[in-house]
Specification:
2 copies of one chain form a homodimer. The first copy, chain A, is an all-alpha fold. Chain A is built from 10 helices and no strands. In chain A, helix 6 runs antiparallel to helix 10 and helix 8 packs across helix 9. At the A-B interface, helix 8, helix 9 and helix 10 of A face helix 8, helix 9 and helix 10 of B. The first copy, chain A, binds a DNA duplex (30 and 30 nucleotides) through helix 3.
DNA sequence: ACGCATATGTCAGTCTCTGACACTTACGGC
DNA sequence: GCCGTAAGTGTCAGAGACTGACATATGCGT
């Protein structure tokens, strides 16, 4: 079994336990035992307990960054951002049910939500320079950050709304709605 | 000495230590010793080490909530949010230098930023209902959250930009700039 | 079979945070 | 002034996350 496969397997076990008992009520020891490994090995796959839920998102971030970069320059930055995150939602394939369960655990645990937003700040540092180049005038750095971080908030909101909803509205629809509400015209 | 005064005193000691050695390099034990108390007592004043930097912000949150609530209903929600956060910036009096140093520590430590974002989510839950009432149409909950959380992002960005800047531009100016960049017209 | 790199378990230790208990201090009623 | 209560503090023990060090096992190419 490849290293990534083992990681995914442990994450799956962890998320199931979190969903049932709550993030804080489950110890690393329990996850490790349920996965047939030692607690020390768990920490070799995940630097922190939270990472079993959040995981490594650099691949996705790069996808968004590249999509954003390839958007036409005459398009408004806000529309480019919407398209880039829409592309991510469209491309993130896999077990929809598992994704939803993961998002549910994530959105219902304050410390996990915070950690996730923290990861989004890393994304913002990746995306901001691209937006910055497409802005004119003063304080482009601040303005680019404001746009990117607001976009990330909308993205996060679309995902959590989708995860907590019963019906099967697509996350892309929630994304469009959030972007339309906030963004500049 | 009142309880709040003691708390502020310990927080001041802690922030100075964090600013000099970095948040992770300073133990609770060291803060306690430098403050002339035991580590156990430190945790009686602050539930977590991070709270010595972030502190209790419910008073400020209530100020923003009340300001927001008293804004005219025919004003656009985005403008009301801008005014409410502007009011907070105008009213938060005290040692500007200390505030700036606190913000610098906060914005340069990942775990602190995460904790701060967690606090913002609490604020969002407080403000969203007010905005929600002033929206028409579908999905008001999602749209209110999108507006409020984007406003919080702008607020946070204004503060960090101010803290990291050399010149003495007012945070209110950065706030206006960020709001003008993102908000709907 | 051998050598090597990778993966794992065990152990010891640090640090944050909590509960329990004992002790001191401050204060209001008598 | 004396006493009972309440609030604040220190000490101790312990859980839980995480790290470094060391030894062992496992797989793989030669």
């Amino acid at each position: 079994m490849t290293r990534d496969a083992v990681r995914a397997q442990i994450a799956a076990v962890a998320i199931d336990l979190f969903a049932e008992h709550g993030f804080d009520q489950v110890t690393v020891e329990q996850i490790a035992t349920a996965s047939g490994i030692s607690a020390r090995s768990f920490h070799r796959y995940f630097p922190a307990k939270e990472d079993a839920v959040i995981g490594d998102t650099t691949v996705w971030a790069e996808l968004v960054r590249d999509t954003l970069d390839q958007r036409p320059t005459d398009e408004s930055p806000w529309e480019s951002l919407r398209a880039a995150f829409g592309e991510l939602l469209a491309r993130s394939d896999g077990d929809r049910d598992r994704q939803r369960r993961t998002m549910r655990v994530l959105s219902s645990t304050p410390s996990l939500r915070a950690r996730n937003l923290e990861k989004h700040l890393m994304w913002a540092r990746m995306f901001a320079p691209i937006v910055e180049e497409r802005l004119d005038g003063d304080h482009v750095e601040l303005r680019a950050q404001a746009l990117v971080q607001s976009a990330l908030v909308c993205f996060d909101l679309a995902l959590t709304t989708w995860a907590d909803s019963q019906d099967d509205t697509s996350p892309v629809d929630y994304l469009a709605l959030a972007f339309a509400t906030v963004g500049p015209r």
